[in-house]
Protein backbone atom coordinates (compact mmCIF):
# COMPACT_ATOMS: atom_id res chain seq x y z
CA UNK A 1 0.00 0.00 0.00
CA UNK A 2 1.29 3.45 -0.93
CA UNK A 3 0.88 6.34 1.50
CA UNK A 4 -1.95 8.72 0.53
CA UNK A 5 -0.79 12.07 -0.75
CA UNK A 6 -2.56 14.07 1.96
CA UNK A 7 -0.44 12.42 4.67
CA UNK A 8 2.60 14.36 3.51
CA UNK A 9 1.02 17.79 3.19
CA UNK A 10 2.27 20.36 5.70
CA UNK A 11 0.05 20.64 8.77
CA UNK A 12 -0.74 24.23 7.73
CA UNK A 13 -2.50 23.01 4.56
CA UNK A 14 -6.12 22.00 5.03
CA UNK A 15 -7.07 18.50 3.87
CA UNK A 16 -10.68 17.35 3.90
CA UNK A 17 -9.64 13.68 4.12
CA UNK A 18 -7.38 14.34 7.10
CA UNK A 19 -10.03 16.48 8.83
CA UNK A 20 -12.70 13.77 8.43
CA UNK A 21 -10.34 11.07 9.71
CA UNK A 22 -9.02 13.26 12.54
CA UNK A 23 -11.17 11.72 15.32
CA UNK A 24 -9.94 8.23 14.40
CA UNK A 25 -6.38 9.51 14.44
CA UNK A 26 -6.82 10.90 17.94
CA UNK A 27 -8.21 7.55 19.10
CA UNK A 28 -5.25 5.75 17.52
CA UNK A 29 -2.81 8.07 19.26
CA UNK A 30 -4.54 7.55 22.61
CA UNK A 31 -4.38 3.78 22.23
CA UNK A 32 -0.65 3.98 21.44
CA UNK A 33 -0.09 6.14 24.52
CA UNK A 34 -1.87 3.56 26.67
CA UNK A 35 0.22 0.75 25.20
CA UNK A 36 3.63 2.40 25.58
CA UNK A 37 2.82 3.28 29.20
CA UNK A 38 2.83 -0.44 30.12
CA UNK A 39 5.86 -1.67 32.11
CA UNK A 40 8.40 -3.72 30.10
CA UNK A 41 7.92 -7.47 30.03
CA UNK A 42 11.66 -8.09 29.90
CA UNK A 43 14.80 -6.18 30.89
CA UNK A 44 17.94 -7.65 29.34
CA UNK A 45 21.35 -7.84 30.99
CA UNK A 46 22.93 -6.46 27.80
CA UNK A 47 22.21 -3.09 26.17
CA UNK A 48 19.17 -2.98 23.90
CA UNK A 49 19.29 -0.21 21.29
CA UNK A 50 16.00 0.51 19.54
CA UNK A 51 16.11 1.87 15.98
CA UNK A 52 12.50 2.88 15.45
CA UNK A 53 10.28 5.57 14.05
CA UNK A 54 7.17 7.60 14.70
CA UNK A 55 6.00 7.43 11.08
CA UNK A 56 4.69 4.27 9.48
CA UNK A 57 6.52 2.95 6.45
CA UNK A 58 10.13 3.21 5.42
CA UNK A 59 12.18 5.98 6.98
CA UNK A 60 15.63 4.37 6.83
CA UNK A 61 15.62 2.06 9.86
CA UNK A 62 17.27 -0.84 8.01
CA UNK A 63 20.32 1.06 6.68
CA UNK A 64 20.66 2.71 10.10
CA UNK A 65 20.67 -0.68 11.80
CA UNK A 66 23.22 -2.01 9.31
CA UNK A 67 25.50 1.01 9.74
CA UNK A 68 25.44 0.74 13.52
CA UNK A 69 25.93 -3.03 13.47
CA UNK A 70 28.94 -2.76 11.15
CA UNK A 71 30.61 -0.14 13.34
CA UNK A 72 30.12 -2.13 16.55
CA UNK A 73 31.24 -5.39 14.93
CA UNK A 74 34.41 -3.62 13.76
CA UNK A 75 34.98 -2.65 17.40
CA UNK A 76 34.87 -6.30 18.44
CA UNK A 77 31.31 -6.57 19.76
CA UNK A 78 29.02 -9.53 19.13
CA UNK A 79 26.02 -7.72 17.68
CA UNK A 80 22.61 -9.34 17.30
CA UNK A 81 19.60 -7.78 15.57
CA UNK A 82 16.03 -8.61 16.58
CA UNK A 83 13.24 -8.06 14.05
CA UNK A 84 9.55 -8.87 13.76
CA UNK A 85 10.23 -9.97 10.18
CA UNK A 86 7.53 -7.94 8.47
CA UNK A 87 5.88 -9.93 5.68
CA UNK A 88 7.39 -13.28 6.72
CA UNK A 89 5.35 -16.43 7.28
CA UNK A 90 7.52 -17.81 10.12
CA UNK A 91 6.21 -18.76 13.54
CA UNK A 92 8.07 -18.49 16.84
CA UNK A 93 11.63 -17.20 17.28
CA UNK A 94 14.72 -18.30 15.39
CA UNK A 95 17.98 -17.07 13.90
CA UNK A 96 18.03 -16.15 10.23
CA UNK A 97 20.26 -18.34 8.07
CA UNK A 98 20.69 -16.59 4.69
CA UNK A 99 21.81 -19.81 3.00
CA UNK A 100 18.58 -21.61 3.92
CA UNK A 101 15.88 -19.02 4.60
CA UNK A 102 13.91 -17.00 2.07
CA UNK A 103 12.41 -13.52 2.25
CA UNK A 104 8.99 -15.16 2.03
CA UNK A 105 9.72 -16.98 5.29
CA UNK A 106 11.58 -14.36 7.34
CA UNK A 107 10.86 -11.04 5.57
CA UNK A 108 13.10 -9.05 3.24
CA UNK A 109 14.74 -6.75 5.80
CA UNK A 110 15.94 -9.52 8.17
CA UNK A 111 17.38 -11.42 5.22
CA UNK A 112 19.20 -8.29 4.02
CA UNK A 113 20.54 -7.49 7.51
CA UNK A 114 21.71 -11.08 8.02
CA UNK A 115 24.45 -10.42 5.46
CA UNK A 116 26.04 -8.08 8.03
CA UNK A 117 25.13 -9.38 11.49
CA UNK A 118 23.37 -12.16 13.34
CA UNK A 119 19.61 -11.64 13.09
CA UNK A 120 16.70 -13.11 15.02
CA UNK A 121 13.13 -12.97 13.76
CA UNK A 122 10.40 -13.30 16.34
CA UNK A 123 6.70 -12.92 16.91
CA UNK A 124 7.47 -11.45 20.33
CA UNK A 125 10.37 -9.01 20.69
CA UNK A 126 10.98 -9.97 24.31
CA UNK A 127 11.50 -13.59 23.22
CA UNK A 128 13.83 -12.41 20.46
CA UNK A 129 15.96 -10.39 22.88
CA UNK A 130 16.12 -13.36 25.27
CA UNK A 131 17.30 -15.59 22.43
CA UNK A 132 19.98 -13.12 21.34
CA UNK A 133 21.17 -12.65 24.91
CA UNK A 134 21.29 -16.41 25.41
CA UNK A 135 23.36 -16.77 22.23
CA UNK A 136 26.05 -14.45 23.58
CA UNK A 137 25.11 -11.01 22.28
CA UNK A 138 27.08 -8.09 23.70
CA UNK A 139 24.45 -5.69 22.37
CA UNK A 140 21.02 -6.14 20.79
CA UNK A 141 19.78 -3.82 18.05
CA UNK A 142 16.00 -3.74 18.02
CA UNK A 143 14.88 -3.15 14.45
CA UNK A 144 11.65 -1.16 14.92
CA UNK A 145 9.66 -1.60 18.14
CA UNK A 146 9.78 1.98 19.43
CA UNK A 147 6.10 1.69 20.39
CA UNK A 148 6.49 -1.86 21.74
CA UNK A 149 6.75 -1.79 25.56
CA UNK A 150 7.64 -5.48 25.92
CA UNK A 151 11.41 -4.83 26.11
CA UNK A 152 13.27 -2.19 28.11
CA UNK A 153 15.34 -0.01 25.78
CA UNK A 154 18.65 1.36 26.99
CA UNK A 155 18.87 3.77 24.04
CA UNK A 156 16.18 4.76 21.52
CA UNK A 157 16.90 6.25 18.11
CA UNK A 158 14.00 7.68 16.11
CA UNK A 159 14.65 7.67 12.35
CA UNK A 160 12.75 10.07 10.09
CA UNK A 161 12.94 10.83 6.39
CA UNK A 162 13.96 14.46 5.99
CA UNK A 163 12.02 14.84 2.72
CA UNK A 164 8.58 14.55 4.33
CA UNK A 165 9.45 14.76 8.02
CA UNK A 166 6.43 13.95 10.16
CA UNK A 167 4.01 14.73 7.35
CA UNK A 168 0.81 16.47 8.39
CA UNK A 169 1.51 15.67 12.04
CA UNK A 170 -1.55 13.45 12.53
CA UNK A 171 -1.92 9.84 13.59
CA UNK A 172 -3.29 6.99 11.49
CA UNK A 173 -5.48 7.03 9.48
CA UNK A 174 -5.58 10.85 9.32
CA UNK A 175 -1.81 11.02 8.87
CA UNK A 176 1.36 8.91 8.79
CA UNK A 177 2.11 8.81 12.52
CA UNK A 178 1.95 5.95 15.00
CA UNK A 179 1.77 8.45 17.84
CA UNK A 180 1.93 12.23 18.26
CA UNK A 181 5.37 13.65 17.54
CA UNK A 182 5.77 15.33 20.94
CA UNK A 183 4.95 12.08 22.75
CA UNK A 184 7.38 10.01 20.71
CA UNK A 185 10.27 12.46 20.91
CA UNK A 186 9.81 12.70 24.67
CA UNK A 187 10.83 9.02 24.93
CA UNK A 188 13.63 9.23 22.35
CA UNK A 189 17.32 9.72 23.11
CA UNK A 190 18.36 10.53 19.53
CA UNK A 191 16.62 11.58 16.31
CA UNK A 192 18.25 10.78 12.99
CA UNK A 193 16.95 12.59 9.91
CA UNK A 194 17.95 11.01 6.59
CA UNK A 195 18.09 12.95 3.34
CA UNK A 196 20.19 15.20 1.15
CA UNK A 197 21.14 18.77 2.02
CA UNK A 198 17.97 20.27 0.53
CA UNK A 199 15.72 17.84 2.39
CA UNK A 200 17.62 18.42 5.65
CA UNK A 201 17.13 22.17 5.37
CA UNK A 202 13.42 21.66 4.73
CA UNK A 203 13.12 19.31 7.72
CA UNK A 204 14.87 21.70 10.08
CA UNK A 205 12.78 24.66 8.92
CA UNK A 206 9.49 22.81 9.47
CA UNK A 207 10.29 20.81 12.61
CA UNK A 208 10.79 21.99 16.17
CA UNK A 209 12.81 19.48 18.17
CA UNK A 210 13.26 19.39 21.95
CA UNK A 211 16.47 21.31 22.76
CA UNK A 212 17.99 18.43 24.70
CA UNK A 213 17.35 15.84 21.96
CA UNK A 214 20.48 14.89 20.00
CA UNK A 215 19.85 15.42 16.28
CA UNK A 216 21.95 13.35 13.88
CA UNK A 217 22.05 14.00 10.14
CA UNK A 218 22.42 11.10 7.72
CA UNK A 219 22.40 10.54 3.98
CA UNK A 220 22.13 7.41 1.88
CA UNK A 221 24.71 7.16 -0.88
CA UNK A 222 25.44 4.47 -3.47
CA UNK A 223 28.18 2.03 -2.52
CA UNK A 224 31.15 2.32 -4.86
CA UNK A 225 31.39 -1.03 -6.68
CA UNK A 226 33.32 0.00 -9.78
CA UNK A 227 30.25 -0.37 -12.00
CA UNK A 228 29.73 2.29 -14.65
CA UNK A 229 26.00 3.03 -14.54
CA UNK A 230 26.27 4.95 -17.81
CA UNK A 231 26.48 1.59 -19.61
CA UNK A 232 22.64 1.28 -19.66
CA UNK A 233 19.88 1.54 -20.63
CA UNK A 234 17.88 0.22 -17.68
CA UNK A 235 14.37 -0.49 -16.54
CA UNK A 236 14.18 0.13 -12.81
CA UNK A 237 11.65 -1.11 -10.27
CA UNK A 238 11.41 -0.67 -6.53
CA UNK A 239 9.06 -1.67 -3.72
CA UNK A 240 10.33 0.55 -0.92
CA UNK A 241 8.96 3.50 1.04
CA UNK A 242 10.10 6.11 -1.51
CA UNK A 243 10.73 4.46 -4.91
CA UNK A 244 11.26 7.79 -6.65
CA UNK A 245 14.28 8.46 -4.45
CA UNK A 246 15.86 5.27 -5.76
CA UNK A 247 15.14 6.23 -9.36
CA UNK A 248 16.66 9.68 -8.79
CA UNK A 249 19.79 8.07 -7.35
CA UNK A 250 20.21 5.95 -10.46
CA UNK A 251 19.83 9.01 -12.70
CA UNK A 252 22.39 10.90 -10.61
CA UNK A 253 24.88 8.12 -11.42
CA UNK A 254 24.30 8.65 -15.13
CA UNK A 255 21.96 5.71 -15.65
CA UNK A 256 19.58 5.98 -18.61
CA UNK A 257 16.20 4.80 -17.34
CA UNK A 258 13.83 3.81 -20.15
CA UNK A 259 11.06 3.26 -17.64
CA UNK A 260 10.50 3.00 -13.90
CA UNK A 261 7.93 1.00 -11.97
CA UNK A 262 7.07 1.98 -8.40
CA UNK A 263 5.71 -0.94 -6.39
CA UNK A 264 4.15 -1.03 -2.95
CA UNK A 265 6.54 -1.30 0.00
CA UNK A 266 7.40 -4.98 0.59
CA UNK A 267 5.30 -6.00 -2.43
CA UNK A 268 5.63 -9.66 -3.38
CA UNK A 269 7.75 -10.06 -6.50
CA UNK A 270 5.80 -12.80 -8.24
CA UNK A 271 7.24 -14.75 -11.18
CA UNK A 272 4.50 -13.22 -13.36
CA UNK A 273 5.60 -9.68 -12.46
CA UNK A 274 9.30 -10.35 -13.01
CA UNK A 275 8.66 -12.21 -16.29
CA UNK A 276 6.74 -9.19 -17.57
CA UNK A 277 9.52 -6.77 -16.58
CA UNK A 278 12.22 -9.06 -17.94
CA UNK A 279 10.41 -9.47 -21.26
CA UNK A 280 10.05 -5.70 -21.57
CA UNK A 281 13.73 -5.18 -20.76
CA UNK A 282 14.90 -7.76 -23.30
CA UNK A 283 12.75 -6.28 -26.05
CA UNK A 284 14.21 -2.85 -25.31
CA UNK A 285 17.79 -4.09 -24.96
CA UNK A 286 17.80 -2.92 -21.33
CA UNK A 287 18.97 -4.30 -17.98
CA UNK A 288 16.61 -4.70 -15.01
CA UNK A 289 17.79 -2.95 -11.84
CA UNK A 290 16.31 -2.75 -8.35
CA UNK A 291 17.18 -2.06 -4.71
CA UNK A 292 19.05 -4.39 -2.36
CA UNK A 293 15.88 -4.89 -0.32
CA UNK A 294 13.87 -5.85 -3.38
CA UNK A 295 16.64 -8.11 -4.65
CA UNK A 296 16.33 -10.46 -1.68
CA UNK A 297 12.63 -10.93 -2.52
CA UNK A 298 13.31 -12.02 -6.10
CA UNK A 299 12.30 -15.57 -7.03
CA UNK A 300 15.53 -17.60 -7.17
CA UNK A 301 15.23 -18.31 -10.88
CA UNK A 302 15.42 -14.58 -11.71
CA UNK A 303 18.27 -13.46 -9.46
CA UNK A 304 20.80 -13.68 -12.26
CA UNK A 305 18.68 -11.43 -14.47
CA UNK A 306 18.40 -8.42 -12.15
CA UNK A 307 21.17 -6.25 -10.73
CA UNK A 308 20.89 -4.29 -7.48
CA UNK A 309 22.19 -0.87 -6.50
CA UNK A 310 23.65 -1.08 -2.99
CA UNK A 311 23.46 2.01 -0.79
CA UNK A 312 24.96 2.75 2.61
CA UNK A 313 24.19 5.32 5.27
CA UNK A 314 26.71 7.93 6.35
CA UNK A 315 26.08 9.98 9.50
CA UNK A 316 27.75 13.36 9.88
CA UNK A 317 28.02 13.39 13.66
CA UNK A 318 28.28 9.64 14.27
CA UNK A 319 30.70 10.15 17.17
CA UNK A 320 27.91 11.90 19.11
CA UNK A 321 25.86 8.71 18.87
CA UNK A 322 28.82 6.64 20.05
CA UNK A 323 29.30 8.98 23.01
CA UNK A 324 25.89 7.86 24.25
CA UNK A 325 26.14 4.21 23.24
CA UNK A 326 29.67 3.05 24.05
CA UNK A 327 29.46 3.75 27.82
CA UNK A 328 26.59 1.21 27.93
CA UNK A 329 28.74 -1.55 26.42
CA UNK A 330 31.36 -3.77 28.03
CA UNK A 331 34.96 -2.74 27.50
CA UNK A 332 36.63 -4.47 24.56
For the structure shown, list the relevant keywords.
alpha/beta, Rossmann fold, 2 domains, four-stranded parallel β-sheet, 11 helices
Give me the secondary-structure topology.
Layout: H1 16-36, E1 48-52, H2 61-74, E2 79-83, E3 93-95, H3 103-106, H4 108-113, E4 118-122, H5 125-134, E5 139-143, E6 155-161, H6 181-187, E7 190-194, H7 197-206, E8 214-222, E9 234-238, H8 243-252, E10 257-262, H9 271-284, E11 287-291, H10 292-295, E12 306-309, E13 311-315, H11 318-325
Parallel strand pairs: 1-5, 1-6, 2-4, 2-5, 6-7, 7-8, 9-10, 9-11, 11-12
Antiparallel strand pairs: 3-4, 8-13
Describe it.
The N and C termini lie far apart (44 Å). The mean pLDDT is 95. The strands form 2 sheets. A 9-stranded mixed β-sheet has the order 3-4-2-5-1-6-7-8-13, sandwiched between helices. A 4-stranded parallel β-sheet has the order 10-9-11-12. With 332 residues, it is of the alpha/beta class. It is built from 11 helices and 13 strands. It has helices spanning 16-36, 61-74, 103-106, 108-113, 125-134, 181-187, 197-206, 243-252, 271-284, 292-295, 318-325, and strands at residues 48-52, 79-83, 93-95, 118-122, 139-143, 155-161, 190-194, 214-222, 234-238, 257-262, 287-291, 306-309, 311-315. Helix 10 (292-295) links the parallel strand 11 (287-291) and strand 12 (306-309). The protein folds into 2 domains: 48-220 and 314-328, Rossmann fold, CATH 3.40.50; 229-309.
- Portion in helices: 25-40%
CATH architecture of the largest domain: 3-Layer(aba) Sandwich
Mean pLDDT: 95
Count of the separate structural domains? 2
Low-confidence stretches: none
Q: What's the CATH class label of the largest domain?
A: Alpha Beta
Helical run tally: 11
CATH topology of the largest domain: Rossmann fold
Strand order of the largest sheet: 3-4-2-5-1-6-7-8-13
